[in-house]
Amino acid sequence: MSVKTKTIVLLSDLEDGQEGDFFAALSARTSSQTREGKKYWRVTFRDAQREVSFPIWNDSPWSKACESEWQIGECYKMRATYRRTQFGPQLEIRKIRATVEADTADGFDPLLCLAKSRFNPAQLMAQLRSIATEELMHPELKEVVLHLLETHEPALLKLPAARRNHHAFVGGWLEHVVSATRNAIFMADKYLADYPELRPPLSRDLVIAGTILHDIGKVHELQLSLDGADYTAAGELIGHILLGRDMLRDAAREFDLEGEMLLRLEHIIVSHQRLAEWGSPKPPMTPEAMLVHYCDDIDAKFHTFLTALEESAEGEFTSTRNPMQYRIFRGSGL
Amino acid sequence: MSVKTKTIVLLSDLEDGQEGDFFAALSARTSSQTREGKKYWRVTFRDAQREVSFPIWNDSPWSKACESEWQIGECYKMRATYRRTQFGPQLEIRKIRATVEADTADGFDPLLCLAKSRFNPAQLMAQLRSIATEELMHPELKEVVLHLLETHEPALLKLPAARRNHHAFVGGWLEHVVSATRNAIFMADKYLADYPELRPPLSRDLVIAGTILHDIGKVHELQLSLDGADYTAAGELIGHILLGRDMLRDAAREFDLEGEMLLRLEHIIVSHQRLAEWGSPKPPMTPEAMLVHYCDDIDAKFHTFLTALEESAEGEFTSTRNPMQYRIFRGSGL
Amino acid sequence: MSVKTKTIVLLSDLEDGQEGDFFAALSARTSSQTREGKKYWRVTFRDAQREVSFPIWNDSPWSKACESEWQIGECYKMRATYRRTQFGPQLEIRKIRATVEADTADGFDPLLCLAKSRFNPAQLMAQLRSIATEELMHPELKEVVLHLLETHEPALLKLPAARRNHHAFVGGWLEHVVSATRNAIFMADKYLADYPELRPPLSRDLVIAGTILHDIGKVHELQLSLDGADYTAAGELIGHILLGRDMLRDAAREFDLEGEMLLRLEHIIVSHQRLAEWGSPKPPMTPEAMLVHYCDDIDAKFHTFLTALEESAEGEFTSTRNPMQYRIFRGSGL
Amino acid sequence: MSVKTKTIVLLSDLEDGQEGDFFAALSARTSSQTREGKKYWRVTFRDAQREVSFPIWNDSPWSKACESEWQIGECYKMRATYRRTQFGPQLEIRKIRATVEADTADGFDPLLCLAKSRFNPAQLMAQLRSIATEELMHPELKEVVLHLLETHEPALLKLPAARRNHHAFVGGWLEHVVSATRNAIFMADKYLADYPELRPPLSRDLVIAGTILHDIGKVHELQLSLDGADYTAAGELIGHILLGRDMLRDAAREFDLEGEMLLRLEHIIVSHQRLAEWGSPKPPMTPEAMLVHYCDDIDAKFHTFLTALEESAEGEFTSTRNPMQYRIFRGSGL
Amino acid sequence: MSVKTKTIVLLSDLEDGQEGDFFAALSARTSSQTREGKKYWRVTFRDAQREVSFPIWNDSPWSKACESEWQIGECYKMRATYRRTQFGPQLEIRKIRATVEADTADGFDPLLCLAKSRFNPAQLMAQLRSIATEELMHPELKEVVLHLLETHEPALLKLPAARRNHHAFVGGWLEHVVSATRNAIFMADKYLADYPELRPPLSRDLVIAGTILHDIGKVHELQLSLDGADYTAAGELIGHILLGRDMLRDAAREFDLEGEMLLRLEHIIVSHQRLAEWGSPKPPMTPEAMLVHYCDDIDAKFHTFLTALEESAEGEFTSTRNPMQYRIFRGSGL
Amino acid sequence: MSVKTKTIVLLSDLEDGQEGDFFAALSARTSSQTREGKKYWRVTFRDAQREVSFPIWNDSPWSKACESEWQIGECYKMRATYRRTQFGPQLEIRKIRATVEADTADGFDPLLCLAKSRFNPAQLMAQLRSIATEELMHPELKEVVLHLLETHEPALLKLPAARRNHHAFVGGWLEHVVSATRNAIFMADKYLADYPELRPPLSRDLVIAGTILHDIGKVHELQLSLDGADYTAAGELIGHILLGRDMLRDAAREFDLEGEMLLRLEHIIVSHQRLAEWGSPKPPMTPEAMLVHYCDDIDAKFHTFLTALEESAEGEFTSTRNPMQYRIFRGSGL
To answer: Which molecular function GO terms apply here (chains A, B, C, D, E, F) (predicted)?
Structure first.
């Protein structure tokens, strides 16, 4: 590392025409061919906030390295110029090498190359804590929720919401849970107000706390890796629904949350995926559990649609390769 | 009708201990037995807002008429005293006869004996019209929605939302649609604000208009009858999804709503029950259609839970005889 | 209770022609008719080991009480003569009255009227404990299993194995678990010997301990009642699979069973019903979990067949009213 | 285009050994290898009536163009000799180039390269019109059917019956509909004669008209493209069942077809795919709708079998890659 | 039997107002009530060709016998007057008694009281034999088919086609098989002519012989009884598909039908119910098997619709209690 | 074959460092790449008892032959040194050529290259015969079983138990059937002893004979080939369940096994796959059939797990590419 080392910047901060040194992961490489039969590699480099896909032509100096050295999922230190062209954003690579131990000193962290939420995880966490603090009335329930958020904060700040289906990026758990919880507050308020005669009355506390905690077991189900997230052994053999209920039960014991309040909250976690074939051993049998299921599901599905539309940049419809397994309509604009 | 005829009152207006003349339908009659083996009939009379269930003992003067004359679903003119007892509300019958043509002159209308929404249908309709007027921006879309509400107002004021599963009472369509549309406004606002990068942007107009119109075809699918609602021939053979889309297409032609806006709105109606086995020939393929499905479904299911809990007055759990086909938990209070 | 009170005997101990005073429950009563059109009641009285079904004719002195006083599920103190006739065993009733508080002094216990296992529960429990003591090698695992059996012994001695499908009687849990565990020992020994190359080697300990504990959660899922067993709130909302895993985890914490041994044992409980639609959130993913599923299932199904054949006494086939939902073949003997 | 240009012929008209200039599309190209390890490309060129598959060896002058220039789905102008060899029909290519705008002057039309029905579309259309004219008795019904055939004749002459499953070629819609309608005439005649007591009597008119129109909505669902057919946006979002019913309703309005006759005909279109999971929102609820479903289905399935057997030229069984998803038996001849 | 005994006639031959002595079975008896609360029994008596349903009023001399003596499924000797009234056909009973052994001398046969085909079984059998004789070309195949029809003629003349779903009456097997075989001749002729290029060519012989024999195993699966048909032990445990294939194989051995012709014919029987859940262990894998499935299914379903419409005499729709499990539309006439 | 020809040895007998001449099949070849981008082929050669996978580097003298000459599924005569290395067992090839006709003289038999059971087929057969001889009491039943084993001995000695799912190797049928029959003896003994009151008593003979014969039809369903086993035409069109029952019926006729004993044994074969979607036209309707299903299934599934774990040598979990279609847990050792 000589004195002349350029400052490290972020790929996602580069402006049109700007050259910079940055860290980026190779996230895709496919062999392709022009209509005239000219072969090339199409590669994608990404950091947390930007993906750039561009061709490496056969006559490029990087052609051979691209074919036989670069590894998908590996992080590289690159010097390149970022250009917006008529064919989309591109990189003109000047230098490129796999990252090494020593790059840590320059601020390298593999997390920098993983896709991450558009939202700031710390702010999302603050927002979630603030919801728990202000909206939950039942004292033991509030303590349990806050305790779980605090205890697992380091993991939750990075956790994706799922391995693939939705919010599958760093900070995805928080982005999804905050959004679902905002749905929950609206639904709890509305149905509590509209149906005051329901006996027992709808528990606003349970709807909100249940939504915050419904996926807490993902902390033990998933483990972040360079190519996304993997299931832990316990995640595969037991699953986040049971693992999350364990976490709740341990915290409840500590803070004396018990009786029917605890039972109903456990049931919310157990039933939040609704059907046996969707992973829940019991269907939602309380109004609160039913609402939590929908507040979660609507947010997950919205993100699934969003991602499918983003990933296929052209055409009236996306392909069927998305978690819905059917084509999503983009249309030609309204 | 002599001068001495008592004024007709509503069963649901009677106070404890008050005697009155009123119209009510016999909605249930079951043969029962005390723990000591004493047999009796348990009958339920109802008007639009109140149901009273009480025993007719074997030694009652009405015992024989109850057994061999009274018909479930028939409306009666009754003179009786309403009493709240330790066994619940009861009626002491003084006179009872089936209603006759001439009772119309005294204000009798079979609708008075059907269960109806707790909300005022005219107010619900005003609320729905006001949402359409204020929230919809697209001029042709707004015209189409308002035109459909206006044209079918007389039917919509009485229509139930379904034959059995939820909101199955007079005014149920409006109660359900207003509530689902309020869900829709919240969801459209929230996801439009949170995901400004979605292309094309989420159409708030479509989410709201789609929710208002999703069940409009029920106007032609169901026909109100004394014992609830029946399917029309077109309702059974074609179904409200297709019939509702017809209504939309006819109105759209009149007000020049066309192109992709119309196509997306049709798709919302077509797909709002989500799965083929739930009745939709196509699944929701746009973010708007997906949101409308959930805004509708969450409201329908909440009401299903509410009804199941109301109908079984005792015990920790309801029975499995409800549209969910499993037991709903009431518990013993939080 | 005068001095002349006869000694109380057991219905199931009465010999042909013997009269006795005993306690028995009315377990069935149906209205029937001879081919000549003569009406009568067919009633069934039972104690733990014998059921007697016989007619109460219209001209019997008990006819009126049978129709309007006797309650199914109620226990009676009876004086009657037991006779084997060409129409099967019958009772000639001399006296009958509902049991009262004071009968306890004469040894009355409602449990005496519930169907129970042909095997002695205490001996079954001793057998199970002895299996755990002698067969399990892993010290913490053995302690955990013995601790759970001991802690819940009073409940386990009475517990049925299920509410309806199989072994649905007092002591059924033990009868089923002992039998399934004997299957487990055979299978573990056989497949361990036949496939020594399996890596890791088949854990005989896990197969045996897993079978003993697979249904331990029924202790908290079911509660014995006069008309069989009911689900507890936790049983319905959470289910015996999760409740049983809780019991295991608590015991494991106490006795330091941990790591992969604990994880595999938890997985056995979680997956023992194999498919999501059969109630297991995860399918068996280890050879041990797969074996436990079968050792359990084969015993449950054998008992289901046995019960179906016993309950329908005549004809080549049973009816379809059994948990298999199809007819079982009895044939006319081999 | 010099004077010396050879006359353009059809690939499908070439005799063994004849050389000609023709237009053909490259419909398949796979990399392959002889048992001795010699690599080659296997290419398929086709026009509307003939497919020829043959090798391009590595040492062929076309080897390089084949690898890097030829595009699947593209039309070429070729000069080649057609030869039947022991390895099947082959082409010896003399010249080949992608078609250009100017080829239109020589009669080039991409349709010439698409697979098409063995039957003449115009004759099929005449046959269908003649069936409608002669067999239909109900005057408005006849007008509606003839009007729809006439209005959409240009599209119907080319339309495939489906994108993939059966009759997926130019003229396939007509071939399938004429054949299904001949089934319909037979079935209507037979069951009308055999069951004269059916009330209302079987409507021969409805069975025939329903079969002619059952797939009319494909006109708006599919759009012909060089590589087969694609779904239109309305086809994907709404589907041919609903689109076809729209066409019927518009025509019915014009020709005063109404009441139960129209309702039953709409129902036939709506229900012709029978099950929800096969695409029909309502199952066939009239004898006529049931017959139309079968007349359609039997023809579609026969063609599916035929195509599967044709496409896999060798072996006792086809592969499972056909719409039945199982192997079809060819055998070795009877 | 005195000289004065009236001649025995058939219930189905009685004219309006005619009195006669006849045998009839009581096929239904339900307790009912007029709108005024007057109770009565509604009974149905039937012989092979006519069903008469009428009330037995409480003050009728037969009221007591009706309630306590008459047995559903029993045959009676009756003297009664047959009258067509505005409430439908009725019987004025003069005498009635259960049939006795001695009635056989007067021509009584329980078969006379069972529903039977409108067609003459002997003529149907002659028609089927004639089809086999004239249409089948393959000599061994023809011999096998004729041999099986001849051997089992006595059983086939009475056999129903199924226990409940369709043609569930005496002679139903023949009615169904003749009708399905006529479908088969049409389909075989049509598809053989239309697709001469199919390899191997469609075997008209196999389609026809396969349809004749597809249900031959019912001979051993069903056994006629007074209340319809019951499954034999082999019918329940093995099923008519396998039993019918046995019969074919035994006959084939005798007449030297072998090789692929036999294999394909066996496969037709094995696969004729198409899906595993509909009872076929293999799906139709030859064009012939596929055609036979449809020729059978269309006839069975047509009869199912016909029966559902006949059994529910009123209303726009039938109930859902028919083998389709949904409502069939009758409408109000075209 | 010169005098100097080395003795032919077995690949599976070679010790570390030993060179030998042997026959082996190429069972896999995949193109791969080191982390540094160096390309190579990974090939697998196998004989009946050993598989060796190793790289052929680009600079190896065999590189070109590997790429363009070697055929998967072909047998080769090789001279090579077998070495255990840190990367697993490897072969250093000195000579290699495809086997030729003349190699038969040196003892070559393609069977030598197919995977086979670890057990000696002749010993397995002796064991099975001995079980039949000693355990079966019913004389005709014993004769039938022994006759079938004897008649088909040559085929059974080689037959795999299935094409892919379990025991898919030479001798697999015998290995599986012997193991399942040992399960059967245990289960029959145990449930016969435990439930002496079952009527008719459990037939130990039927459980054992049924397990021995349950898959006997595989003899005609499968035919051994160099790349495993293929379905025969009868296997695909009729299936081993029906073919096996044919074999039983033919043998039963010869040895006078008949009546209910034969019917129950046929039913065991028919129902042994339990569910229609698993291939059985009838579910197990006798206790014996139910036991046979489980004795078979447990052995098949155990082997499936074993194979999945063996095939994926590394990692906590296998992949999902196994007949269970989910991941199997290996863990890191207990």
So the answer is: hydrolase activity
CATH label of the domain that carries residue F66: 2.40.50.140
Element (H, E) at E210: helix E204-213
In a domain, B327, yes or no: no
Six-digit token pair at B144?
A: 């189409």
Rounded to whole angstroms, the Cα distance separating F138 from F152 reads 22
Strand ranges of the sheet holding A39-46, from the earlier edge strand across to the other edge: A51-57, A39-46, A19-33, A75-85, A88-98
**Contact of D316 with D306, CB cutoff 8 Å:** no
Which residues of chain B fall below pLDDT 70?
1-6, 35-37, 226-228, 313, 333-334
The mean pLDDT of D279-299, rounded to a whole number, is: 98
Domain that holds residue A286: 121-311
C332 band by pLDDT with thresholds 50, 70 and 90: confident
The domain boundary, picked from D58, D81, D113, lies at D113
Co-location of B104 and B125 in the same domain: no
- Give the tokens for residue F137: 């009491």
Burial letters D259-294, b for 16+ CB under 10 A, else e: ebbbbbbbbbbbbbbbebeeebbbbbbbbbbbbbbb
Band (pLDDT 50/70/90 cuts) for residue D1 is: very low
Instruction: Order the strands of the C39-46 sheet from edge to edge.
Output: C51-57, C39-46, C19-33, C75-85, C88-98
Q: Are B107 and B148 members of one domain?
A: no
Give the DSSP H/E element, type plus range, for residue D76. strand D75-85
Reduced to 3 states (helix: H, G, I; strand: E, B; else coil), residue A242 is helix
| Residue of C31, C32, C35 to mutate when probing chain E, most E C-beta within 10 A | C35
Are residue A195 and residue A261 in the same domain, yes or no? yes
Residue C329 to residue F183, Cβ atoms within 8 A? no
Judgement on whether residues B55 and B145 belong to the same structural domain of the protein: no
Tokens of D152: 């959409």
Secondary structure of residue A165 in the 3-state scheme? coil
pLDDT confidence of A314, banded at 50, 70, 90? Answer: confident
A250 touching C, CB under 8 A? no
Which residues of F fall within a CB distance of 8 Å from D327? 236
Chains touching chain C through at least 3 C-beta pairs below 8 angstroms are A, B, E, F
Cβ-based contacts under 8 A for chains B and D: 65
State whether residue E84 is helix, strand or coil: strand
Cis peptide bond prior to D154, omega within 30° of 0? no
Note the pLDDT of residue C3. Answer: 47
In a domain, E251, yes or no: yes
Do C and D make contact via 3 or more CB pairs under 8 A? The reply is no
Q: How far apart are CA D43 and CA D80, in angstroms?
A: 14
- Looking at every residue in chain E, the average pLDDT score rounds to 92
Residues F103 and F125 in one domain: no
Same domain, B59 and B144: no
Tell me the mean pLDDT in the region C282-290: 98
What is the model's pLDDT at position F32?
77
Task: Provide the Cα torsion F146, F150, F154, F159; round to 10°.
Answer: -10
Q: Which residues of C touch A239 (CB under 8 A)?
A: 270, 281-282
Pure H helices in chain D: 63-68, 121-135, 139-151, 153-158, 172-194, 204-213, 218-221, 233-237, 240-255, 259-271, 287-311
Identify whether E316 is part of a domain. no
Interchain contact F334–C (C-beta under 8 A): yes
DSSP character string of A62-82: THHHHHHT--TT-EEEEEEEE
ipTM of the complex: 0.88
Q: What is the token pair recorded at B200?
A: 């094309």
Radius of gyration (C-alpha) of chain B in whole angstroms: 23
Collapsed DSSP state (helix, strand, coil) of residue A26? strand
Residue A166 confidence (pLDDT) above 80 = yes
Nearest to B316 among C69, C71, C233 (CB): C233
C304 shares a domain with C179: yes
